[in-house]
Write a structure and sequence with these properties.
Elements (H helix, E strand, L loop, with lengths): L20 E8 L4 E8 L4 E5 L6 H13 L3 E6 L5 H4 L2 H8 L3 E2 L5 H10 L22 E4 L2 E7 L8 E5 L4 E5 L2 E2 L2 E2 L9 H12 L7 E4 L5 E2 H7 L6
Parallel strand pairs: 3-4, 4-5, 9-12
Antiparallel strand pairs: 1-2, 2-3, 6-7, 7-8, 8-9, 10-11, 12-13
Length: 233
């Protein structure tokens, strides 16, 4: 699944700006996807976003970090259901007794991914069917902190992003990358919708907002508005 970016994948994201929420990034699987753990240092509550851990060694790295930090994983979230973003859903769901969550409009993406997974030489038939609990403008609570769900379609039909206004960051999945944007040639993708999403949902965030994408290195809203060759603000 080729994306329009040429930056090296990030391996670890240090704690961001502020006090409470921290982000850990792992780059996993054969497509070099970014899996994020977002956690509250006070309560030790955590969510996993886009579990892409494919191999045993990747499971071990992810689980070791969670155990080392004594975190309690409360939700397993997906920005969307393309194969590279759900490869670790089964392992994480089993480990932490959780059910993955997606937007209702992306359930068809999940179903298509399961049907076509063998094309990649991967059998996802036992991957747990997600709950369709993620809704636009609703809140994900992590301890006393929170993320707002943004409905950001275009790369897939039901893509969502997770925004923290307090700490000025957004987990954007495959909507936008440093110097690039998500592909729209897969089922459910739509170029006009994606450009509208970037204009109206991403570029309306404060310019200092850090974008943590599904692939590659982090960037900022202001930087992409000025320099992204596919869409400038």
């Amino acid at each position: 699944m080729t994306h329009h970016y040429h930056k090296r994948a990030c391996h670890i994201i240090c704690p961001i700006f502020a006090t409470m929420l921290k982000i850990k990034c792992f780059t996993f699987n054969f497509i070099q996807e970014n899996t994020y753990i977002v956690y509250d240092t006070e309560s030790a509550e955590a969510v996993i976003v886009d579990a892409g851990n494919q191999y045993v060694q990747e499971n071990e790295r992810l689980f070791h970090f969670i155990e080392e930090q004594a975190l309690r994983v409360t939700r397993l979230l997906n920005t969307h259901a393309h194969i590279d973003h759900i490869l670790g859903n089964e392992a994480c769901a089993t480990k932490y007794q959780l059910t993955p969550e997606i937007h209702l409009e992306d359930l068809i993406t999940f179903e298509n991914t399961i049907k076509t997974s063998l094309i990649w030489g991967i059998n996802l038939n036992t991957s747990p069917t997600p709950k369709t609990t993620l809704r636009d403008t609703e809140t994900i609570f992590i301890g006393k902190e929170s993320l707002e769900i943004l409905f950001t379609p275009g790369h897939s039909r039901g893509h969502v992003s997770f925004y923290c206004a307090k700490q000025h960051f957004v987990l954007s999945g495959d909507v936008i990358f440093m110097g690039s944007i998500g592909r729209t040639d897969l089922p459910g993708g739509n170029a006009a919708t994606l450009l509208s999403t970037i204009t109206n949902k991403i570029y309306t965030l404060p310019m200092e907002t850090t974008i943590y994408s599904g692939h590659g290195e982090p960037t900022r809203v202001g930087h992409e508005m000025k320099h992204n060759p596919f869409i400038q603000g």
